[in-house]
Give the backbone structure.
Amino acid sequence: MADKPEPLEGPYWESARRRAEELAAVFAADQVVTEAELAAKGIYPVSVAHGSPETDEAAALIFEVLPRLARECGTLTATRGGGEYTTYLFAGPGADAAAVAFMARVLAVAPRWWRITAMAYPVWCRDQAQLNTPTHSDLGIHGK
């Protein structure tokens, strides 16, 4: 018979919580370093947390429309991403303006639950996004 798991209270719980907080600080520091390195190189990131495409329309928006909008804004140098987000990297002359223009264009076509941020890492919830990132309502833009 397997050992009974420890209850989620008392010293075991406190130890696990402290370890999770320590790991979160390590990952947050990595994010800060990445953002600083990009800024030093004159690279302006825009991350779009869009989730997995569940319809043909969503797939077209994520894999066709967004890349086209990024190219049209200019100075797109690379994209990175996972299954549920894409980060667009703008560099060179006018990269800052291109990143801002891209964010505005994405906000105009994105579903309201997407999070568009001027960061190299995606932001998934409104609490994180409130740090310094405009959302649809902040800019007076209403998506689908």
Observations:
- Confidence is low (pLDDT under 50) at residues 128-144.
- The longest strand covers residues 43-49.
- The chain is about 50% helix and 15% strand.
- The radius of gyration is 19 Å.
